[in-house]
Design goal:
four-stranded antiparallel sheet; alpha+beta; globular; 26% helix
Length: 94
């Protein structure tokens, strides 16, 4: 639990990849409300502008700032390998 909570609202990829086999988080994914990690979305910046018209590009994914808002015991998110996961219930059984 402490290892997970140390990275709440942050990118935990380096630590995660050192101690887990590839595919571990994906193997444990659950639907919203389950007792495992819930995929909330991918991190991403702005989409490339089409046609070079100078218009602002729309965001294509979550930002670390958005993930960072989920840093409480009742709302725990972390980023692993470019994807944000809600681990609120998983931390209790991990």
């Amino acid at each position: 639990e402490q290892a997970i909570t140390a990275y709440l609202g942050q990118d935990a990829s380096d630590e995660w990849n050192m101690i887990h086999k590839a595919g571990t988080v994906e193997k444990n994914l659950v639907q919203e409300g389950g007792n495992g990690p819930v995929l909330k979305g991918k991190l991403g910046g702005a989409a490339p502008a089409v046609g070079g018209g100078g218009a602002a590009a729309a965001p294509t994914g979550l930002t670390l700032d958005e993930v960072g808002k989920h840093n409480k015991e009742s709302d725990l998110w972390v980023v692993v390998n470019g994807k944000a996961y809600d681990v609120t219930k998983w931390v209790q059984v991990h």
